[in-house]
Amino acid sequence: MFVARHIPADHKDLIHDVSFDFHGRRMATCSSDQSVKVWDKSESGDWHCTASWKTHSGSVWRVTWAHPEFGQVLASCSFDRTAAVWEEIVGESNDKLRGQSHWVKRTTLVDSRTSVTDVKFAPKHMGLMLATCSADGIVRIYEAPDVMNLSQWSLQHEISCKLSCSCISWNPSSSRAHSPMIAVGSDDSSPNAMAKVQIFEYNENTRKYAKAETLMTVTDPVHDIAFAPNLGRSFHILAIATKDVRIFTLKPVRKELTSSGGPTKFEIHIVAQFDNHNSQVWRVSWNITGTVLASSGDDGCVRLWKANYMDNWKCTGILKGNGSPVNGNSQQGNSNPSLGSNIPNLQNSLNGSSSGRKHS
Amino acid sequence: MEKMSRVTTALGGSALTGRTMHCHLDAPANAISVCRDAAQVVVAGRSIFKIYAIEDEQFVEKLNLRVGRKPSLNLSCADVVWHQMDENLLATAATNGVVVTWNLGRPSRNKQDQLFTEHKRTVNKVCFHPTEAHVLLSGSQDGFMKCFDLRRKDSVSTFSGQSESVRDVQFSIRDYFTFASTFENGNVQLWDIRRPDRCERMFTAHNGPVFCCDWHPEDRGWLATGGRDKMVKVWDMTTHRAKEVHCVQTIASVARVKWRPECRHHLATCSMMVDHNIYVWDVRRPFVPAAMFEEHRDVTTGIAWRHPHDPSFLLSGSKDSTLCQHLFRDASQPVERANPEGLCYGLFGDLAFAAKESLVSAESGRKPCAGDRRHPIFFKRKLDPAEPFVGLASSALSVFEMEPSSGSMSWFVDTAERYALAGRPLAELCDHNAKVARELGRNQVAQTWTMLRIIYSSPGLASAASLNHSVGKGSSYGLPLMNSFNLKDMAPGLGSETRLDRSKGDTRSDTVLLDSSTTLITNEDNEETEGSDVPADYLLGDVEGEEDELYLLDPEHAHTEEPEYVLPQEAFPLRHEIVDTPPGPEHLQDKADSPHVSGSEADAASLAPVDSSFSLISVSHALYDTRLPPDFFSALVCDMLRFYAEQGDVQMAVSVLIVLGERVRKDIDEQTQEHWYTSYIDLLQRFCLWNVSNQVVKLSTSRAISCLNQASTTLHVNCSHCKRPMSSRGWVCDRCHRCASMCAVCHHVVKGLFVWCQGCSHGGHLQHIMKWLEGSSHCPAGCGHLCEYS
């Protein structure tokens, strides 16, 4: 099913984030070595580094692409307490001839007094907006009022979360029925068992973000959080990487039933919880249709989760980070006997992928 | 808390104990220095000069050196240093340029010993000789360094920094006569104390001021320097030219740097601005601090390791008026909290995954890849085996690509490109789309299309169906054979379904599914179907279930509904209908025929589902004699659309919405429709399916969507003959009254894609030109030019 293609990233320290662009043809990586690299996919499917530059004076935690409507724009955030917005410069230069592109810094957002742990562009329909969160527990939302001028960003909102923030996720829904919403996760490791995931919603009347929900059941440090692409669903799906993988659904309770003007009420259900990684889960990422969730943990594996028509989530694949097959049936305990016929297929494909992988 | 953090360190007889603790000072501190016995610390600042005893649980104030009613400026200390051989000897550097020595052994309250008033501006640094009892060195803002012999009243020698301000002076620990000094212009100088005329060596170490330096306690050649350029550099001074061996990037200017005792590669830094934390770095991992102390609320001004042979206690003074003792064990470790993995799902189902190499290669022992640059580190590590080093972490980056054959998103692209959404009668659209879906192996979707066709375009055909059926059989050769073949295979009672089966192609799973739907097989059978094929089939269960009910309901409703049902207007594909056709049975007949005509013209495959589904319906009609209004199904169809949307297949929801048009539109609220449209358009644009996306925008009925394409695009056209702008909206130029942009092949006006040769400027319809150029390389206009189109 999968073929692993190894890329000599040549980052001099840990890579903390990988991010595909809107069209899936470009990839950005960021690392503790303070640099960001941009990779372009060639016709043959190989990834070539077309830009690599020093972005910050500390570890770069996250890198993220803006919608291409706003240009080739990246945002990064760092331990050095800043977030930065970068734009690729189009033009003829020597760089171009060498197959290298040039990125310039358009702005530095310096409002945080502590490490900026995540940065995310808002969904396109909201305009050019950017949210950051920092270790001091503040989520900041910036807006570029003029989308042609990427060097001017105004701080629109500051949301205090009371807990050291580690990750944020915008609700991607483009429906008018869904107000802008942002979920914040905390990796605060202090022993007090406070809820580590908070959801804030924009209130049209007060023009402020107010807390809509707190996921009381998540009390362990949260490392990553991701709303599934909405694609016309009436409800939202939220994946959380903590000591295990968790998937929540948030169904808006009909407006008429709630007091108008207040925040939307949600019916929150946990639909899946998997501890198959047997360790901290670091990342979760949704496929484009929001039907498959990938998670990665300290075991060095990527696991794929998919729901069947009964909304039962199951593991549909395990990928070892170096492309080698995973030994043993690690789906034990969770796999449904009715799925039995699928497993040999999967194993075969994984074996196949290991023989087909490239060392480049 | 107290239990866990109490630490005792044995140091050759004497033991250090303590915990992480702090005490409040009366005023901000500028510098601290530790006594040789590691039990006392002196804190100096603009209005503070005190000695504290370091006890197990707390700091205890021992002595206040600011005495007298009116403290003089000499007491405003920029720096303080405690002699490392004489417990009674201290020196301070005053901001007014005075260097003061203090003798704690003096019996009087005032311990001030000597006063050197030789510098003209602030003295930034004072430094005792590490082994010589009476030698003191000072460095000042005025650009001079002075060496004092404490037995004399004035300086022994003066070293000139060439009018550059001196920020730090440090005696070498190993070389008796050598000291290093750092300057505001970024230079570092090395002096021999016996030769005040000129420095031994000078090099530029930093961009901007070098605020501090520190000699390595063991490695005689190593000097660490820190500057405003946020960097700490480690220089090897033993070679002929000072060589940079390590460079640590911090997040703020470096005000102080101190090597950690007993840890060869560790050093502590603090900053003079913005950043209040103290970091301990392993110089071999220059990007991520090994430890971080976050106690201070304002700038840290002084740091000192408590004992020259103990790596676990660090003392610090700060502008926030506190004195702290930090325990290395209590430090926060950014490395531990740092995320070691990155993961991103790509558009085509590929996964980019970056992970710390130790995580992914633990078992497999994969060789480091070619781009790895850790070899120098390994080399160093061999030199220094005693100190465990977790390693300069690096990550392995890989992209897991979906094999094209398996479930990548290509089905989405194919479906989007091949679906027909408008321009033909409903039945044809449904058939076409069902065929597309089936060819892509999406049987459930194909089934849905077929059902939609049955629901929305068959009731009026009840009479025509049988006729059509026979006609279809007669006209399509080969197929009837297959039909009968299948019939034999199947149970005789299911004759009607078998035909439908055949229409579905030969997918076995589908047969089962269809059987289950029509014959209402129980749940166990559904389970069976799940296991048998692609996951998409799971989804089918639900829809099927609903459709089951539908078929069940038929008879009941047949009785309640009136038999002489009149076909409602909605049954017509209004959108694609010519308005003047009179509604009536003849018209229906026409419509029913049309798919057959096109079917037999094109390929038999498209024909097959048509006639078989007809047969299905005709059977159901024959059995129950029902004529349900399509309205009856609309709630069900809406549910189905919502189901698809909830399952993440917004493509299906939007496609059906467009194809069915008015039939279902009114039953789904505008907001939901708009949501589906925007989601689908967004997806199409991700896959660069601009044409499909535009078509969807065009076909959408939601105003918010259809206006998407009308914003901010203006086309300016010039006449190809007189080169004037075309002002009117037509295709005829006002000025020369000729048609603009004629196709050189067909001599018609080109509306839409126009392609032309840049050499002779002749061109025309893209299709025509492409066709022309297959046969000839000359310009179709006959100008003789050898055209090049690429």
Query: Can you summarize the main beta sheet of chain A?
Result: 4 strands, antiparallel
Give the largest chain-chain interface (CB within 8 Å). A-B, 96 and 88 residues
Largest sheet of chain B: 4 strands, antiparallel
> Would you tell me the overall average pLDDT of chain A?
84
Q: What multimeric state do the chains show?
A: heterodimer
Poorly predicted runs of 5 or more residues of chain A = 327-360
Query: What level of helicity do the residues of chain B show?
Result: 25-40%
Residue fraction in strands of chain B = 15-25%
How far is it from the N-terminal to the C-terminal residue of chain B, by CA? Answer: 75 Å
Radius of gyration of chain A: 21 Å
Shape of chain B: elongated
Q: Determine the N-to-C terminus distance of chain A.
A: 21 Å
Number of strands of chain B: 35
Number of helices of chain A: 2
Strand order of the largest sheet of chain A: 2-3-4-5
Poorly predicted regions of chain B are 1-5, 363-388, 460-625
Detailed description of the structure:
The complex is a heterodimer of chains A (360) and B (790). In chain A, the strands form six sheets. In chain A, strands 2-3-4-5 form a four-stranded antiparallel β-sheet, with no helix packed on it. A four-stranded antiparallel β-sheet of chain A has the order 6-7-8-9, with no helix packed on it. In chain A, strand 11 and strand 12 (138-143) form a beta hairpin. Chain A is globular. The longest helix of chain A has 15 residues, at 342-356. Chain A is built from two helices and 25 strands. Chain A is mainly beta and 360 residues long. Residues 327-360 of chain A have low confidence and may be disordered. Chain B is an alpha+beta fold and 790 residues long. Among the domains of chain B are: 339-364 and 392-402, no CATH class; 409-454 and 629-711, no CATH class. In chain B, 32% of the residues lie in helices and 25% in strands. Chain B is elongated and about 115 Å long. Chain B starts with a helix and ends in a 15-residue tail after the last helix. Chains A and B meet through strand 1, strand 2, strand 3, strand 22 and strand 23 of A and strand 31, strand 32, strand 33, helix 12 and helix 13 of B. Chain A: Residues 324-360 are annotated as: Disordered. Chain A: Keywords: Cell cycle, Cell division, Centromere, Chromosome partition, Kinetochore, Lysosome, Mitosis, mRNA transport, Nuclear pore complex, Nucleus, Protein transport, Repeat, Translocation, Transport, WD repeat. Chain A: GO terms for molecular function: structural molecule activity. Chain A: WD repeats lie at residues 8-40, 274-306.
